[in-house]
Amino acid sequence: MRTIILLTLFSIIVSPAFAQKYISWEAENFDAVNGTKFEVFEVPSDQPGNADEGVDDYTVAEASGGAFIGSPNGATNDGGDWVKYEFSVAGDDWHFWGRVIAPSIADNSMYWAIDVADGDVASTNNATMNIWDFFEVESLRVGYTTDWVWFRLNTRDGPFKGTELVQHGDDPVPVKLSDGDHTLHIAHREDGTYIDKIFATTDVEFNPNETDPQTAVEPQNKLTTTWGALRGGF
Ligand SMILES: [Ca+2]
Ligand SMILES: [Ca+2]
Ligand SMILES: [Ca+2]
Ligand SMILES: [Ca+2]
Which residues span the domain enclosing 89? Predict the structure, then answer.
C-alpha cells in the first residue's frame, strides 16, 4: 500500500502595480491626447503671465522629469481638448494630488474625470466631468504663485462630496477605486494653468507639499505573492 501525496504549489504571481499604496506619473507622459491645447514644455520654459490679473511673464525653471504640460495664456479657455492616463491600483480609497502652477483666478483650473469613455470627455461641468480648482475658493487666493504647488484633487459637485475647501481641510474625500485598471482624463479649462506630475496615495495624512513623494513614501506590499493551496490526498 502506498500513500501518494500530491503537492501542488502554484506559481508565484508577481504584480507590483496591484499592490502599490502610492502611484505617480509625469503629466507629460500621457497615454492619449485629443486636440492641440495641451502642449509639452521642457524646462527652463518662458511663459506669458496675465496682465489683467497682475501676473508678470515668468520662467518655469524646474519640473519633474524636465517637462510639464498646459496651455499658455492666449490659447483661450475650454475647447474640449484632453489628455488621458492609464493606471492600475489595488482597490482602496485613493487620495490624488497634482503638481500645478496656477498664478491667478484666471489661470487656475482644469476639468477631470476618472473611468469615463473618451467620447464623454468635454470641457464642461456635468454629471461626467468635474472642475479641479487651484486656490479658487476666496480664502485660498492668497496662495497664487508661479511656483509649483501640490493640490488635492477636488470637485465642485461630485462624484465625491468635495469642493476645494473640503479638500483643504482635515477630512479630505478620497476616490474609491476597485482593483485593476483605471483611467484619468484631464480636459482643458483655463489657459495659463500647468501640471507637472500626478501622485496618488492611500495615505490620507500624506502631504507632498511637506514631503517629497519621491523619497518619503515607501511602496507597501510592492510584490504581491500568492501561494497556491497545498493539497494532500490519496
Ligand atoms: Ca478660475
Ligand atoms: Ca488664463
Ligand atoms: Ca460635475
Ligand atoms: Ca513632469
Answer: 22-209
